[in-house]
Prior knowledge:
Layout: H1 2-28, H2 33-68, H3 73-82, H4 89-119, H5 135-160, H6 162-172
Helix pairs in contact: 1-2, 1-4, 2-5, 2-6, 4-5, 5-6
Region (Disordered): 117-138
Amino acid sequence: MENYNHVNGQVSINERALGDSMEYLNTVTGGDELSSLEMRDQIDELCVYLNAAKSKRDKAVAAIIAHRWSARRDEFRLLLEKMTVQSKPDAEKVFHEECADIAAQLVEKDQAISELKKLGPSSPTKGKHPDEISEQDAEQAAKTLLERERDDLFMRLLRSSRCIYLLAKETFLK
């Protein structure tokens, strides 16, 4: 998961850099022809790097999906056989952005849970009534919900990217 989060962050940064570079190039096209060509070369180089990072990210998603389904191989095999994959690049981008948001929220939840554990069982975060849950349990439940949401996004990525679908199938069948 750490690999995916890292590569997803790189892709996001490079997409912004590419957009900024394209915008800058469009504003200076009336200027020096040589510097414009150099800028285009840099943009082309950035595109190559970005595509390589996206490929790594797709492989990371496929590996995560295959790992998540490893205990239910037959069920996943049937799912793959019946699944209809429609290429939706815009949706993929949104799903990856949502995964990045969830990753940031999970870091916050882990920090909160860690702090609550340090307070120990005598902390005032416990409910006053036996049927109330502790703040730590509430944070853990919220974390679990976020993890499920991220897993759902990975399955949406599987359905919206032919590349991820094929990589997951290949990884799973190894």
